[in-house]
Specification:
The protein is an alpha+beta fold. The protein is about 20% helix and about 30% strand. It is globular and about 40 Å long.
């Protein structure tokens, strides 16, 4: 896969992602990012329904949960390279490797960072 930017979640141990290749990325200051938000995608997937989710390999839990109930993050391209912002629960070697593979990135050359947007939701 070609290098890409985007958003992702871990839902019931399934990596769920949406993104685009760099040529279609949106500028955001000095960075390139995916022009789509977690809440908007989640709502679209819920509206698409269970049959669509199943046909596209997405977990049914999307229908009965909110986007911020699951660990999530975003891949951004900044002038120094790719940055993976993620909930700390996703910052394990196996999960980082899965996210990097999904977005066509090399683990060793991707910066991993935490961000207050991607932390565990407190009830």
């Amino acid at each position: 896969m070609t290098e890409a930017v985007g958003i992702f979640w871990m839902v019931d141990d399934v990596l769920v992602a949406a993104g685009c290749e760099l040529e279609h990325a949106a500028p955001y200051g000095d960075c390139l990012t995916y022009d789509g938000g977690h809440a908007e995608h989640w709502e679209q997937w819920q509206q698409a329904g269970g049959h669509w989710l199943n046909a596209n390999g997405l977990p049914a839990a999307i229908l009965t949960s909110e986007y911020d109930e699951h660990p999530r993050g975003r891949i951004v391209k900044d002038p120094g390279g790719f940055v993976l912002y993620a909930d700390r629960r996703l910052q394990t070697p196996a999960r980082i490797a899965a996210v990097c593979e999904r977005f066509g990135l090399e683990v060793g050359s991707t910066s991993i960072r935490s961000d207050s947007h991607y932390r565990e939701r407190l009830s």
